[in-house]
Every structure is written in C-alpha cells, then in structure tokens.
Design goal:
The complex is a heterodimer of chains A (108) and B (884). With 108 residues, chain A is α+β, with helices and mostly antiparallel strands. Helices cover 59% and strands 15% of the residues of chain A. The longest helix of chain A is centred in the last third of the chain and has 26 residues. Chain B is built from 27 helices and 21 strands. Chain B is elongated. The chains are: A alpha+beta (108), B alpha+beta (884). Chains A and B meet through helix 2, helix 3 and strand 3 of A and helix 1 and helix 3 of B.
C-alpha cells in the first residue's frame, strides 16, 4: 500500500466527480460530493482548493474561467487525458485498499 | 526533478505572480459567493448569507497559503516573501538596523583581519612544493636555528634523512645597474638552494651545486619576481646581464616564479646570490670558521617515508660526531625540527601564541556582539509580541514566524559581514603593502584569499543563527489569546532572564578586552620609560656597510675615522661616535668570554656570553652612555697596542666580582687573546627590551675592525637639515657609498615593533570591547526604561524622588553591569598572564591598571545609561497616564 493512498482519496473523489459532471467549479464539486454521498462525506475548502491546484499543476486537470447559470464568474475544472488515465489507476488502487482494509477488519 | 519543477515554477511565479495570486483570490471569492447564493435560496437575506459563507469558509489566509504551497515553487517564493517582509520590518526601525549591522561589521571585520594575518603567517606554508616535508633544523635546548657553514656541510653530507639540505643568510647589499647604487636585501644561499626546495625558474635558469668551485666562484644572482618587476620593469632581456653587486660583477641568471618569495614568511629577498661569494658580498667570509654560526637557517625536505623523529635521531648521531671531532667549537649538538616560515620555534612560538590569543579575543568580540544583538532581538521580539500573536491568531504557523525572525537575523548578519569584510579587505591591502620599518625588509603579505572570505561568511551566518535563536523560546511560548486580550503583557519579574544573562556575559567579555588592552598599553609605557643605557633623543644614525663601496681590510677603520672627522665639522654637531651595530638593532652580536685562568677555550667553559660592540673612542659621548669609572678608549688603542675593552657593570660583576676589581683586570676572548678592562659603563638593553641584565663589552674598532658602520651623531639641530648635511659630507668622501640616515628614535622602532604592534592590536580590541559594552548597556537600559515608562509615570505621580525613579529605572542595568565587570576583571587578570610573554613588563596585578579598568567600566556604564536616565527623569505623568 502506497503511503498516500488514503490521502489520495480526495483526489479520487474529485477526479471521479469531474468524469461524471464534465466541467465543474470548486464549489460545485464540493456540493456534488456532499449530495451524492448523502452528506456522509464533506469536503473541506481548505483541502479542496490546494488539491485542485496541485492536480492542475500536474496536468491532470485543465481550468477555464466561465459564467455559471446564476451568471457568476467561476473557475471550471475538467479532466485531461492524463487525468482520465490517473482516474483509472486511482480507482483500481482504491479497490485494493478497500479490500485490504476490509480483510483486516473481518479478521477475527 | 522536484527541484527542476520548483525552479520552473519559480520562474513562472516570479513573472506571473500577481496574475496567479489575483486568480487564486478570485476563485476563493467565487466559492464564497456560490455558497452565499445557496444560503440565500434557503431563506436568509443576502448580507447574513454572505457573512455565514465567510464564517463557514474559515481561515481564508491559511487556505491561500496552503494553496500556494500546493502549487510548488513555494520554497523560493516564501523565502523571497520572508526577505521582502524582513526588509520592510528593518526599514521601519533604521536605528536598530544600523546599530546591529555596524556592531556585526566591527566584530566580523576584526575576526577577518586577525584570521587573515594568522592565515598568512601560520596556516599558509611558504610557497614551495611539498611544504609538509620541509623542515628547518634547530640546535640545542634553546632551539637556535643559526649554524656555522662547516657544521652545515657536515650535516648535509652525513645525514641520511634529508633530500638535500640547503642554507641561507640575510645580507644587505648595494646593487648598481649602471651608476645608481641602491641598497637591496638578499638571501645568500648555498648553490643547491633552488634544487633542494624543488623550485623551477620563471625565466632563465637558477644556479646549482655544480656551479660552486670554491671561494667567489659563482658570481651569479637570481632575481625575485617582484624585484624584477619593480627594478627591471619586467624586462625579459635581463637574463645574462652583468650588474655590480658591492662593486663586484655578477651575472643575472634568471627570475624566480612569482609565488616563491623566499623561505621566511615575513622577509622577502630582492634577489638570491650564492654564499660561496660571501667574501665579495660582505667583505669577509666566515665560511671556514666552525665557531661562527652565521647561517640564518638550514633546511630541507625529508626523504619520502622518513618521519621527523627518525630524522632527529639521525641528526643527533651526526651531532655527537661533531661534538667529539670539534670539541673546541661544537658543544650541545642536539637537534630538533621546526617549520621554516617563522624562523624556527624561538620566534615562531610566541608569535603563534600571540596570534592565537588575538584570534581568541576577536572571537570573544564576536561573541559579545552576538550577545548584544541577541538581547536586542529578544527585546524586539517582545515588543512585537502583539504582531506575532495577531499573525498566530490569523493562522500563520509558528514555523513561518520563526523563519521570518531568522531571515531578519541572517539578513543583518550578512549585511554586517559584507560591510566588515569590505573594511577588513581595505585594511589588509594596506597592511600587505606596508613596510613597517624603513631599515629592514620586514613585510607581511596578508592579502585575503578564498579562505578568509569563507571564514567571514561562515562567521556571519553562524552569528546570525546564534543571535537569531535567542527569541525562539519567546515566540514558541506566545499565547495569542492572552496577548490579544490583555495588550502587551510584559512580566517584569525579578528573576534572571536570558536577556540579563546575555548582558552579563557581554559585559564580562568586554571587561576582559578592556583589561587586556590596558595591561598592554601600560607595559609599553614602561618599556619606553626604562633605561636603555643610551639616549636616543637628539641623535641621528648613519648606517652603512663599507664593503658595499669596496672597502677592505686596513681601509675600513681608516674610512670610519675619516667619516667621523668629516661629520664632526658640521656646525651644531656635539659629538660623533661609531659602533658596528647599535644596541637593540635586531639582537646583539654575542660572543663567549672566558676568565683569564681558563686554558681550554671550549664553549662549555665560557664564563659568560657577552654582547660585543666595536666602537670609536667618542661613542659613549655620542650615545649618551654614562661612564662609571676608568678611562675611555682612544685612537692609540690600535693594532699595535695591547688589546683593551670597556665593559658594562654587569660584565664587571659577573667576570670579576665587582667594579673596582674589574678595572685593569684581564679576560680572554674566544680566539684566546687576553683583553684588559680599562673602563666601566652603565648597564643597558642590548638584544631585546625584555632581556635581563646582560654583560656587554666594547672593543676598539681599530683592534677588531668591522665594515658594518653606524655613526651616532648627537646634535640639537633639526633632523631633516642635519641628515642632508651628513649626506653631503659623506658624498664628498665617497660618491659610491650607499648610506641610510635617520633619527635614532626612528631606528629603534624596530626594537619596539613587536610590542608596539601587540599594543596597537590589543588596544583596538579594547576599544571595540568598550564600544560593545556601551551599546549593550545602552540597549538594555533604554529598553527597560521604555517598557516601564507608565510605571515610572505612576511613581512620579505618587511623589517618587529622582533618586528613587532612577533606582527603579536603571538599578537593574547597573547591578548587571557591576556583576559583569567584576567577573570580566577576574578573567582579564588571568588572561593577562598570557600577555606577559609578549608585552614587556605586562603585569596584570598593577594596581593602576586595575583602577583604570574599574574606572573605565564605570564611565562606560554612566555614558551608556545617561540618555535612558534622562528619559526616565523627564517622564511627564500626566501625558503618560492620559493616553492609552
């Protein structure tokens, strides 16, 4: 298990959200994650934006300024080809982690 | 890879910083607005919605910072930001900044200068290949490095440890390249000198052992690079040219490489000439006399694989052979090895001790400066407690704040280091070009090299961290909640704080420095007041060596007499006398003397070693030496008359038991001749200022002639005019005789040079220590007054008297001052014992010195607390209590 697999969970959530929604801004991503998870997961703004900026820097996300339906300016993020590849890797990794963790939890 | 990324990102950020920042900020703002929109939809009004959104978002600043860091390149960027911020903070308090930079500049400059001298004289070996295997040979328990030429030859041929042994001697000669005789300093060397040292010529060729075929067989010289440049304008055509050296033709063979400047660290020869030509160069030769130990030094490279201990054992076996074979001349032939650069251990050891001591004092100064700056920084950090607390409350990390403080400290230390280094480089350049004594080739090349710059940089950084670390604990303990709530809460407890401790340490160090310099100055004053046995005031010295103009044998004393007679005719001249070398002129000529009964004249049987002078009859008059009894020498004491001498009181006591018994008595010199004592003069100083009473004998220059001539001219006339008059008189006698004319006081500078330099450097250290003490106490007192201004106002309002106000404001500073001074005084007295080796009569238990130190520290304390005290007294309680 790589060291940052658990920390990478947020990255995974963001990447997955963007693959489902296409392009979305930071607030939209946070709201989406909260709604879809039935408020089980909340994303702290303090972690969200650093993660977005980091992934943009790594070339997984591209960002564009655009207007929302409520005609507010916002920075919209979408997946790049590298981002899609990264998502596949992360999903696979995550399944492994979950299996592993469950195995540990069920061990009697 | 990360570094590359980071660098690329740095590049981008440096140029697109503002757009990036604005973008990030806009994104966060957009987030808050979206949230507010949602909240508004759920029924809140707009302003309440926006407020809630911002509260939910939380530490906006921190997210911004974290987002920044997530993007990379943050290391350089935060450093830049820290530097910008620190510069802004420093600009806001220019007084503090200037004081801090100057304090450090002084301290680091002093360290750089002392280190450069230490580096040039001790750390840097002489510029020859493989310096680590190069050793000079010392003889006997007194570690003498002088040897006789026959002894040198035996050592060279009989040892099995050295890869060739060479020897050299200093000489002053006149060099004439065509009607312009000028004095020059040379090394007379054995012809294998350059080969034994493994030096290759820069131009032309060197002489070799194969060029020696007996006396005066090698009329060649090799120029030093510097002399070739200055005297021959770097003319490559000099090779093969014939020049006149003391009126004898010598051929210039070549030029030595620029970095090789002889085998002493402080006397660089103008050129080298073979020693086999000593008779031509000096007018007489002692190369065949085993008892004349006139070689300055014998040195060579150890063979590969031979340890110094093995070499010493080998040399000692040669030594015992010499003792057995030549019992008359050679006694005490045990050997040891030393590095050649400082002329062996007898000179090198005290110099090394002194320089190391000086370096330690310089280190103390830096430490005192650091203590000073540390307490300033701590005070500053306390004043900035609110700012720090506010930043902590806004989410800045403690690490970041500490980094900011350290950045400030390092900036100051680097600025101080740069200023200090610039100053010291200027000083060192000047020192390197300086010829401290006109009559000697003494010179020290202390030009700073990479090592000096590196040391200065490291010292600057280290001191930055040292004083930057003082306020760390203070920041780590800051509780933002408490500070923001209650304003600047300063606990003025009575317990000893770090700041107090620093101040005591600093004052103690300063007191050590002040004590040392006082002791040194006092020692020098005493050495100037002591009785030399002659009167340098109102006397001129004309120095020359008659062989420079070709005088030999009988013509030497005749010329000396003509010179005396000629100079005596100058109006205003009271008396003129001649002596070979004046007393205190780089040591005295020492000779063995024996009591009359001794028949076996080997060195071990000598009754004493006496300083020997060859004088004209009027010498004592001219020199101002007091005559005690008997008669003076006269011009009838010549070669045909029985040999006579005037001796000093110490000689009379030591050889004859008392002055009356000495008159008319006989003693024997090393060559076996009986000499009758005809007169007694007072004791004096002959070799060094610090010597104990020495026996001395004064012989007639007619009976033991010497071409080395110093005319002592006593007159009240203006020295400049007198010198010109003397010069023209000598010109009338001989156009081609190079002479050196100066006042006796000036000539004596040579004798006083070491203690004078020691005094100057210690004096400078003392002044620096005093300055640091003032700034330290001032800083502390000013700070404590400004902190307690309100309290003082209340006291005054309640009717406190001036005395009580002062006691409250400054009592603590003064108590610390007294405590530190006392500690420093004790340490200083202990340290001054080391000084006694260097500085004449430097005794730390001199009550005058102790009184001076106490007085000086008191004055410094008063001076430094004067302004803060004035401020405390002028507090207006009304204004203070009103404004909050």
């Amino acid at each position: 298990m790589a060291k940052n697999d658990l920390q990478g969970a947020l990255d995974l959530l963001i990447l997955k959200t963007l693959s489902q929604l296409g392009a979305m801004h930071g607030y939209g991503i946070a709201v989406h994650i909260e709604e879809v998870s039935d408020a089980l997961l909340t994303v702290e703004e303090g972690s969200l934006y650093p993660a977005l900026h980091r992934m943009e820097q790594s070339g997984w996300l591209r960002a564009e300024w655009a207007m929302t339906e409520s005609s507010r300016k916002a920075k919209f993020y979408s997946l790049t080809a590298a981002g899609k590849k990264q998502l596949a890797v992360r999903e696979k990794n995550w399944e492994q982690v979950v299996k592993g963790v469950q195995a540990i939890l069920r061990f009697a | 890879m990360r570094v590359l990324n980071s660098l690329g990102s740095l590049w981008e950020r440096l140029f697109h910083r503002s757009t990036k920042n604005a973008e990030m900020e806009e994104e966060l703002r957009s987030h808050i607005e979206h949230r507010a929109d949602d909240l508004e939809r759920s029924g809140l009004d707009r302003t309440e919605a926006e407020r809630r959104a911002r509260v939910e978002f939380g530490g906006y600043e921190r997210y911004r910072q974290e987002s920044h860091e997530a993007v990379g390149g943050q290391f350089f960027e935060t450093v830049l930001a820290d530097i910008r911020f620190s510069l802004r903070m420093l600009r806001k308090s220019p007084g503090f900044t200037i004081a801090a930079v100057l304090t450090l500049a002084l301290a680091i400059g002093a360290n750089a200068v002392v280190f450069a001298v230490l580096n040039a004289l001790i750390l840097r070996p002489i510029h020859a290949p493989e310096p680590q295997s190069l050793y000079a040979i010392q003889r006997g328990s007194d570690e003498a490095i002088n040897h006789s030429y026959p002894d040198y030859r035996d050592l060279r041929d009989r040892n099995r440890s050295f890869d060739g042994l060479t020897a050299y001697n200093l000489a002053s000669v006149g060099l004439d390249t065509g009607n312009n005789p000028t004095p020059a300093w040379i090394y007379e060397v054995t012809a294998n000198y350059f080969d034994a040292l493994k030096i290759n010529p820069y131009l032309g060729r060197f002489f070799h052992a194969s060029d020696e075929h007996g006396a005066n067989s090698a009329p060649y010289i090799v120029l030093s690079y510097a002399y070739w440049q200055s005297r021959f304008q770097s003319d490559r055509g000099v090779v093969g040219r014939v020049v006149q050296l003391n009126k004898h033709p010598f051929t210039i063979l070549g030029v030595a490489p620029p970095e090789f400047r002889g085998t002493l660290s402080f006397i660089f020869p103008d050129f080298w000439a073979p020693m086999v030509n000593q008779e031509q160069i000096e007018g007489s030769t002692v190369l065949n006399e085993r008892g004349h130990r006139e070689l300055l030094m014998v040195l060579g490279h150890l063979k590969a694989g031979v340890t110094p201990a093995q070499a010493i054992a080998d040399l000692n076996s040669v030594g015992s052979y010499l003792e057995k074979t030549y019992p008359k001349e050679d006694g005490n032939m045990t050997f040891s090895l030393a590095r050649p650069g400082l002329a062996g251990d007898w000179f090198g050891r005290p110099l090394r001790a002194f320089l190391v001591g000086l370096m330690m004092l310089a280190g103390l100064i830096l430490l005192a400066a650091c203590a000073n700056l540390g307490s300033l920084f701590a005070a500053r950090a306390a004043d900035r407690g609110r700012e720090v607390a506010l930043r902590l409350a806004l989410g800045a990390s403690r690490r970041r704040i500490l980094r900011g403080l350290f950045t400030e400290a390092i900036l100051i230390s680097l600025a101080g280091g740069t200023v200090g280094l610039a100053g010291s480089v200027a000083l060192l350049r000047w020192l390197s070009a300086w010829r401290p004594l006109s009559s000697s080739p003494l010179q020290v090349a202390v030009n700073p090299d990479a090592k000096v710059y590196l040391v200065a940089l490291l010292l600057a950084l280290a001191s930055g961290f040292l004083f930057g670390a003082v306020p760390v604990r203070q920041v780590l303990r800051t509780d933002p909640y408490q500070v923001v709530k209650s304003g600047s809460s300063v606990r003025m407890g009575q317990r000893m704080t770090v700041r107090d401790l620093l101040l005591v340490v600093q004052i103690a160090i300063c007191a050590v420095l002040v004590t040392s310099s006082m002791v040194a100055v006092r020692g020098l004053m005493r050495s100037l007041e002591s009785n030399f046995g002659f009167e340098p005031q109102n006397a001129m010295l004309l120095q020359t060596t008659l062989t420079m103009a070709g005088y030999m044998g009988e013509r030497v004393p005749a010329m000396q007499r003509r010179m005396i007679d000629a100079v005596e005719t100058i109006p205003g001249v009271k008396s003129v006398g001649s002596v070979d070398r004046p007393p205190l002129h780089y040591g005295a000529n020492i000779a063995n003397v024996f009591i009359d009964r001794t028949t076996d004249l080997k060195p071990a049987n000598a009754a004493a070693q006496a300083a020997m002078y060859r004088i004209s009859p009027e010498y004592f008059d001219a020199a101002g030496t007091a005559f005690l009894s008997g008669r003076a020498l006269n011009w009838h004491d010549d070669k045909n008359a029985p040999r006579v001498a005037v001796v000093n009181r110490q000689f009379a006591n030591k050889i004859f038991g008392s002055v009356p018994r000495a008159i008319g008595g006989y003693y024997k010199s090393g060559d076996g001749s009986r000499i009758q004592v005809v007169g007694i003069v007072e004791d004096g100083k002959y070799g060094t200022l610090t010597e104990d009473l020495q026996p001395a004998m004064f012989l007639s220059l007619l009976q033991s002639p010497s071409p080395v001539t110093s005319l002592v001219v006593r007159s009240h006339r203006d020295p400049g005019q007198l010198a010109a008059a003397i010069k023209s008189k000598v010109r009338e006698l001989d156009q081609g005789l190079p002479v050196d004319i100066q006042t006796w006081n000036r000539e004596l500078e040579g004798a006083l040079f070491a203690s004078r330099m020691a005094t100057i450097s210690l004096g400078v250290m003392g002044v620096m220590g005093a300055v640091l003490a003032i700034t330290g106490i001032f800083g502390m007192a000013a700070y404590s007054v400004s902190k307690r201004l309100r309290e003082l106002g209340i006291r005054i309002a309640l009717g406190a008297q001036r005395k009580q106000v002062l006691e409250a404001a400054l009592g603590r500073a003064l108590r610390l001052l007294a405590f530190g001074s006392a500690a420093g005084l004790v340490l200083g007295v202990l340290a001054s014992r080391v000084l006694a080796y260097i500085v004449y009569q430097a005794t730390p238990r001199d009550p005058l010195v102790l009184a001076c130190v106490v007085l000086a520290m008191l004055l410094l304390g008063l001076l430094a607390t004067w302004i803060p005290a004035q401020r405390a007294l002028s507090v207006n309680p009304l204004i203070l209590l009103r404004d909050e």
